[in-house]
Write a structure and sequence with these properties.
Forms a ring-shaped head-to-tail homodimer around DNA. Helices cover 17% and strands 40% of the residues. By secondary structure, it is an alpha+beta fold. The chain has three domains: 111 residues, DNA Polymerase III, subunit A, domain 2 (DNA Polymerase III, Chain A, domain 2, Roll), CATH 3.10.150.10; 122 residues, DNA Polymerase III, subunit A, domain 2 (DNA Polymerase III, Chain A, domain 2), CATH 3.10.150; 113 residues, Roll (DNA Polymerase III, Chain A, domain 2). It has a 13-stranded antiparallel sheet with strand order 5-1-7-8-9-6-2-3-4-17-16-15-10. The chain has an eight-stranded antiparallel sheet with strand order 14-11-12-13-25-24-23-18. Strand 8 and strand 9 form a beta hairpin.
């Protein structure tokens, strides 16, 4: 990869591998707004330093940036519309030569040519530096904490404090506890991570969670997390993601987790249970997804009835199924809870038809689903 000769008066001049640039654009695309009436928010800020390009996007609530190697013949900075730039450069091949003039960023790759109108980089609003409690965590541990409970995050706007994952410190056991609930179901998982006493328990919004998971997938070494006053920052080598936190007080979720003592524990093969549940859900009401679960010695029957009179029944036979009270659950919530597990067996702790059902498996993930009247 070779550069272009520097010319006085030019703006940014750089050469970069097409695949490197398009992967970088994809990495920061998560912070772009879904809809925006402000043109600068649809752009990616490109800054050329000594030997790298830094790409940054923001929707004012989240910000993503990544630094990639490039041959820089002349430093500079500019903003271009991110989506068309990604689409056009994604079709090019080989080394891309980027040359900035007064109004455009011109791109050359072999015989291919493209030009993108630019906006002033001064109009791009960056986040301020995040100052607060800082700690390192293995990317797999962070991804496990988020990925195991994300399905229980609320999507309703009436209770915004439930619209994210609550992360709190368990100082006694040296763990961080990730919890999500929408008021109907709950999932919580502790992961090993020692943090300092000044750690402030944040609520990380739903919008940011998938981007943090993707950053963890790209990380091969521990990531650094900084919890600021109202922003959390996750960084790995050459990449940074920031998001504003949800303002509010998270409910005392521990009170709704039922105790196992006195409950009927139903041990089931997870795969067979999911298959039986899928059969029953084929006839369930699309609004309530109500499923009736009945246990006899060695057998669980899952039944659903549609409003049109149709019904479907799935059966799981297993030696460790004891007689238990009949109860009802939201089949969709139950399926997502089972999908969050990776074990061969799962245990349902049932007290009665009115008490939340606790779902456990090998490991520390605990899930709770409020029963339905069926």
């Amino acid at each position: 990869m070779t550069g272009r000769k520097k010319q006085d008066g030019d703006g940014l001049i750089a050469t970069i591998d097409q695949q490197v640039l398009t992967k970088a654009l994809a990495a920061v695309s998560g912070a772009l707004p879904r809809r925006s009436q402000i043109p600068i928010l649809d752009t990616v800020l490109i800054e050329a330093g000594a030997a790298s390009l830094t790409l940054t996007t923001t929707n004012l609530d989240q910000e993503a940036s990544i630094q990639v190697g490039a041959v820089i013949d002349q430093p500079g900075s500019l903003c271009i519309d991110a989506k068309p730039a990604t689409a056009i450069m994604g079709r090019m091949k080989g080394d891309l030569t980027l040359t900035q003039d007064a109004t455009n960023l011109n791109v050359i790759a072999g015989r291919a040519r493209a030009s993108h109108p630019t906006l002033p980089p001064e109009d791009f609003q960056k986040f301020s530096e995040v100052i607060g409690a800082e700690f390192e965590i293995a990317p797999g541990a962070l991804a496990s904490g988020i990925g195991s409970v994300i399905h229980a995050v609320s999507s309703e706007e009436t209770r915004p404090y439930l619209g994210g994952i609550f992360v709190e410190r368990d100082a006694e056991k040296g763990r961080l506890v990730f919890t999500a609930t929408d008021g109907i179901r709950l999932a919580t998982l502790p992961v090993t991570c020692n943090v300092e006493d000044s750690f402030r328990a944040p609520i990380i919004p739903r919008r940011a969670l998938s981007d943090i998971l993707k950053l963890c997938e790209r990380a091969s070494e521990p990531v650094t997390v900084t919890i600021g006053e109202d922003v959390v920052e996750v960084t790995r080598q050459g990449e940074c993601y920031r998001t504003k936190l949800i303002d509010g007080t998270y409910p005392d979720w521990k009170r709704v987790v039922p105790k196992i003592d006195g409950a009927t524990r139903i041990c089931l093969p997870r795969k067979e249970l999911m298959e039986a549940l899928a059969v029953a859900m084929s006839a369930s009401n699309e609004k309530s997804h109500a499923i009736r679960l009945t246990c006899e010695e060695g057998k669980m029957t899952l039944t659903a009835r549609a409003t049109e009179g149709a019904w479907a029944e799935g059966v799981v036979e297993y030696t460790d199924i004891p007689p238990a009270p009949e109860f009802g659950l939201n089949g969709k919530n139950m399926m997502q809870a089972l999908q969050a597990l990776a074990t061969d067996e799962v245990t349902l702790a049932v007290v009665d038809a009115a008490t939340p059902v606790r779902i456990d498996a090998e490991g520390d993930l605990v899930q709770v689903i409020v029963p339905l009247r069926v």
